[in-house]
Amino acid sequence: MKAARISEYGGPEVISIEEIAEPGIEPHQVLVEVHAASINPFDGKIRSGAMKDYIPLTLPVTLGGDIAGVVKQVGSDVTGFAIGDEVYGQANAVSGSSGGFAEVAAAAAANLSTKPSNVSFEEAASLVLVGASALQAINEHIKLQPGQKLFVHGGAGGIGTVAIQVAKQIGAHVATTATGSGVDLVKALGVDEVIDYKTEDFSTKLAEYDAVFDTVGGDDFAKSLGILKKGGIAVTMAAQVDEATASELGVTAIAQMTATTTEVLDELRALVETGVVAAQIDKTFSLDQIADAFRAKEEGSVNGKVVIAVAEE
Question: How far apart are CA 114 and CA 250, in angstroms?
Answer without folding.
Answer: 41
